[in-house]
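Q: Here's a chain of 99 amino acids. Please give me its 3D structure as tokens.
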Amino acid sequence: MRKPKLSAQLQRIRAACVTTLMIVGAYFACVMPYTIAFIVWNKRHKNSQDLMFESWPLYCLIITFCNSLLNPIIYLSRSGRMRKELFQYCGWGCLDCSK
């Protein structure tokens, strides 16, 4: 059974939705470890100031900042036009602009 062909506008909307879901998913994947760890730590140590002497909050915060690195990678992987502009800006010409 063949799938019916989608119109060009519907394909663009679908691609935009998938990109948005990937960005939101990456955000939650990067922020949730810090949020969960911070909530658990606050439940156990209500009056303690030892948080700055532990290393796990730093690791969780680094994962949170990695979201800023993932967003351009996601956008470049999903958008042929952005990929083409990046290649031209970097002076690589049109290495793989057929996509």
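Q: Can you summarize the key feature?
A: The mean pLDDT is 81.
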